[in-house]
Amino acid sequence: MKGRNSATPIARLAERERWKAGEIVFWLAVASAWFVFPQNLVLATQVLIAGLFALSLDLILGYAGIVTLGHAAFFGLGAYTAGLLAKYGWGEPFSGLLCAAVVAAAVGWLTSLLVLRGSDLARLMITLGIASLLYEIANRATSITGGVDGMQGVEMGKLFGVFGFDMYGRVGFVYTFVVVVALFVVARSWINSPYGLSLRTIRESATRARAIGVPLDRRLVTAYAVSAAIAGVAGALLTQTTQFVGLDVLSFQRSANLLIMLIVGGTATLYGGFVGAALFILVQDRLASINPVYWLFWLGVLLILTTLFLRRGVVGGLLAWRQRRRGIEPDEGTA
Amino acid sequence: MTTTLGVLFDGIAYGMLLFLISVGLSVTMGLMRFINLAHGVFAMAGGYLVAVLARRYDVNFFVALPLAFAFGAVLSLLLERALYRHLYKRGPLDQVLLTVGILFVATAVATYLFGSQQQPVVLPEVLQGRMVVLGVELSRYRLFLVAAGILLTLALVFGLERTRFGARIRAAVDRQNVAEAMGIRVERVFQATFAIGGGLAALGGALGIDVLGLDPNFAQRYLVYFLLVVVVGGPGSIVGTLIAALLLGIADVSGKYYVPQIGAFVIYAMMIVLLALFPLGLFGKRSAR
Amino acid sequence: MTAILETRDLCKSFGALQVTQHVNLTLEAGARHALIGPNGAGKTTLVNQITGVLGPSSGQVLIAGEDVTRMPAERRVRRGLSRTFQINTLFAHLTPLEAVAAAILERERESIGFAGRWIRGVSHRRAQLDEAQALLDALGLGRDSGRLTHALAYGRQRILEIALALAAKPRVLLLDEPAAGIPEGESDELFAVLDTLPADVAILLIEHDMSLVFRFARRITVLVGGAELVTDTPEAIAADPRVREVYLGQGKH
User: Fold this and answer.
1) What stretch of H or E contains C191?
2) Residue ranges covered by each domain of chain B
3) Confidence tier at A333 by pLDDT (50, 70, 90)
4) Coil, helix or strand for C168?
5) Which of A333, C63, C140, C253 lies 20 to 30 Å from A228, alpha-carbon distance?
6) What is the ipTM of this complex?
C-alpha cells in the first residue's frame, strides 16, 4: 500500500505542480523543429495550432467534465474574425488574435447559458447545433465569408512592423510557437490554481461541489468562455499563418477530429492534446493523401479501440504506468 | 392556399420519415441512457440494402422493405452485443467516442462499396406520380410515407401499451432496478428494443431515399436532425418524438420554401429555443435507474 | 436564545403526495439534535429542503434568523450550513487532501487575492493545506490523505464525508445517516468522530442506528409520514408509547 515514494501528500502536490525537466525538454524539442525540419515548418505550425485547440477543449472536457461536440464553433469564429480583419485592412497580427479571442469568448459566454443547463445529452445537442448553425451561416453568407470556396484576400501585416509572413512558414512557426507556449503557461497555472481545483471538483461530483460551496454555474461559465477564447486564438492563428479561411473550420469533422486528438493523446494531462495532434496530423498527412477512404476507416477503428482499451490515451497511459512502477495508484482519472 | 397545404403536407411526410428513423434512438436513449451517434448508420444500411436489392436483383420494393427492417435489426443486435454493451456503465463521452468511430467506419465502408455519389431512386410504379386528395394534388409517394408513418406509430403505441413486452419496456424505462427485481430480464429487453429501433431506422432509411437522399455521408449529415428530434421530443417518449419530428419536418420544409436564404438555419434556431424552454424535451422523462 | 437553524411550517408535496407536512424544527448553537423515523418518513427530503437541493412547496428555512428559502445550495454553505450525504458523494479521483483543501479554499476565497485564486498553484496555499491535513489527521484519515478517494475503504469514505462538511467551518451540520452501511456494533469509530465535533456547532443527525442516536442526541424529533410526531428528550422518546408503536419490530435498543 505504501509506495516507495514516501513524501508527504502536501509535498507530492507541490511536486506535481512544479515544472518538470521533461516538460522543458518537450518544448525545446518542439522549438528545435526550426533547425531540424526547416522544410516542414508549415506542418509543425499546424500541429501546434491543433494542439492549442485541443488544449482549449481539455480545459472544459478533461478538467471540468463538459462534453461538447461543437468546439469548432469557436475555432471558426476566431478564424473568420482574424480573416475579416485582415481582409478589410487591419493586418496587425497580435491585435487580430486579441479580437478573435474576444469574439469567441463573447459567444462562448452567451451560449454557456444554454450549454450548461440541461442534461449531458441536451448539452451535446446544443453544442452541435450551435456549431451547425454557424456553419450554415458561413456557408450562405458567401459575400462575407467566401462560402464553400473560402475567404481569399487575407493579407497579414508584418509582425512588429518588421517580420513578414513568408512562404516557407518560418515567421509563422516562430509566431505560433511563442503564442502557444504563452497560452500553455497560462493554462497550466490556471489548472493548478484553486480555481482549477474547483473545476475538477465539479467534474467529479457537481452535487458535492455545490455542497462545499462552489458556485457551479459561475465557474463553468467562466471556464467555458476562457476555453472558447483559446479555441478562437487557435483559429485565428490558422488564418494568419495560412492567409486563408476555409469553411471546414466550422465543420463537424473538425470537432470530431479534435475529440480524437485529445482522447488519443490523453485528457486532463495538458500535453495530451499536443501529442494527439502531432500523431493525428502526421499520420493524416501520410495516409489521407494516399486514400481518404482508408484514412477515415482506420480513424474510426482507432477511435473504437482507444475508447474500449486505451481510454487514458498515450500521455495518460504513460503517466499511469510510471506511477504504478513507483507503487502509487495512478493519478487523475479520465473525464 | 394549395401551396401552403402542399408545403405542410411535404413537411408532415418529411417529419414522418424523421420520426421513423429517430424513434428507435429515442427509446434506446431513454431506456439505456446510451448516446448513440451512429444511429443514422442503421438508416443508411436499410437504404443501401433496398437500393442494391432493387437495382441488382430486381426485388420488389414492398418485399425489400421488411428485409430492410430485418437487416437493421440484425445489424443493431450485432453492434450491441459486440461493442455497445461494454459502455453502458461508462459516461457519455465514451459513448460519443465509440459511436463516432462506428460512424466513421460505416461512412468509409459505404464509400468503398458504393462510391460517393447519390443513390438513384427506386420507386415502384404504383407509388410514382400524384394523386388528388381533397382537391389538392399530392405526391403519391409522400402519401404512402404519411400512411406508413401513421400505421407504424399506431403499431408502436399499441405494442407499448397493450402487449406484455411493451409493459416490460415501460417498466424498464421507469425504474430499471425495480423491473429487474421483479424478474424482468432487462438485458433482453434492451437488446430487443435496440433491434426494433435499428430495424425501424433501416426501414425509414429505405423509405426515405427519395426524400432524404442516400450517399455515404447520410449518417453524418442527418445526425443533428435525429438527435434534435430525440432531444426536443424528450428521450424515451414516442409521442414526444413524433411531435418533435413533425414540428421539425414542417419547419424545415417551410423554411426552405418560404425563406430559402436562411433555410436550414430555421431548424437550428428552433432547436435552441425549444431546448432553452424545455431542457428535458417536450415530453422528457427522468428515467430512474 | 436565537435559533441557528429554523424551519417554519415547511411543506412539500409531489402532486397529491405530501412528503413534508408543516415541519417546525429549531436548533440553537451547540445543539445535538437527532431526526429519526421509519423508512420513507421523508427525512432525507427534509434535509434536501434545508440544504437547498430541493425547494419546498411552502414554508421557510432560516439560518441565524436569515431567510434562505430562496437561496441556492452553494450560498447556504457560505452562511454556515454543511451536510453529509447518505450515499457517499465524494470526488472519486481526487485525494482527501485535495478535496478538503478545495472546501477550505472555497470558504476563504474572498481573502485570497486574484493571483492566489487563479494563477498561483494550490501548493502555495500552505496555510489552507496544513489546515486540511490537520483536519484529516484529527479524523483519523491522515495516513490516507494522499490516496485517491475511490481507493479508500467504505468506512473511511464515510468519515471523509464528514471531513468535507467540517472543512467549511459550519455553524450548522446536517449528518444524513453517517452510519449507513456500517454494521451494528462497528459504529464506535464513527461515534468517536461525532464526539469530537466542535461544541458550538449545531448538529442535526439523521440515523437509523438507535445506539448511536441515543448516545449522541440531547433532543430527538420523530418524523412519520413527513410530519412531526413528537420532539423531546431521549428518555421521553424512549418511553413514549406512540414512538414504540411506530417502531414496532424496527427499533434496536
Assistant:
1) helix C188-195
2) 2-222
3) very low
4) coil
5) A333
6) 0.90
**C96-125 pLDDT tens trace:** 999 999 999 999 988 888 888 888 899 999
Grade residue C253 by pLDDT with cuts at 50, 70 and 90: very low
Instruction: Indicate the average pLDDT of chain A.
Output: 88
Q: Indicate yes or no: CB of C89 within 8 angstroms of CB of A208.
A: yes
**In B33-120, where does DSSP find H-type helix?**
39-56, 61-82, 92-114
Look at C121 and A193 and tell me if their CB atoms are within 8 Å: yes
Is residue B257 very low, low, confident or very high in pLDDT (cuts 50, 70, 90)?
A: confident
Long-range contacts, stretch B145-154, CB < 8 angstroms, 24+ apart: B145/B13, B145/B16, B145/B17, B145/B207, B145/B211, B146/B9, B146/B12, B146/B13, B146/B16, B148/B16, B148/B20, B148/B207, B149/B13, B149/B16, B149/B17, B149/B19, B149/B20, B150/B16, B152/B20, B152/B200, B152/B203, B153/B19, B153/B238, B153/B242
Q: What angle do CA C71, C72, C78 make, to 5 degrees?
A: 80
CA distance A170 to A260: 28
Backbone dihedral angles phi then psi of residue C228, each to the nearest 5 degrees: -75, 120
Considering only the beta carbons, identify the residue of C91, C146, C168 that sits closest to A9.
C146
DSSP C144: G
The SS3 of residue C59 is strand
Q: Does any CB of chain A come closer than 8 Å to the CB of residue B115?
A: no
Q: How far is C93 from chain A (nearest CA, A)?
A: 5
**Residue A126 with chain B: CB contacts under 8 Å:** 271-272, 275
pLDDT for position A332:
54
Q: How far is C134 from chain A (nearest CA, A)?
A: 12
Collapsing DSSP states into helix, strand and coil, what is residue C84?
coil
Contacts A–B by Cβ distance under 8 A? 127
Chains that touch B (3 or more CB pairs under 8 A): A
The CA-based diameter of chain A, rounded to the nearest angstrom, is 66
| Neighbouring residues of C251: CB distance < 8 A, sequence distance ≥ 6 | C210, C244
User: What does the domain layout of chain C look like in residue ranges?
Assistant: 1-80+170-253, 90-167
Whether the pLDDT of residue B176 is over 60: the answer is yes
The closest of B133, B39, B106 to A301, measured between CA atoms, is B106
- pLDDT tens per residue, range B66-78: 999 999 999 999 9
Contact C212, C187 (CB under 8 A): yes
Of C51, C122, C130, the CB nearest to A194: C122
Strand partners, B137: B132
Beta pairing partners, C12: C20
The pLDDT of residue A335 is above 70: no
Between C193 and A74, where is the model more confident?
A74
Is residue A123 within 8 Å of residue B91, measured between CB atoms? no
- What CA–CA distance (Å, rounded) separates A233 from A148? 22
Spatial separation of the C-alpha atoms in residues C230 and A149, rounded to whole Å? 77
Q: Which of A296, A268, A193, A234 is nearest to A77 (CA)?
A: A234
- The CATH number that domain C1-80+170-253 falls under is 3.40.50.300
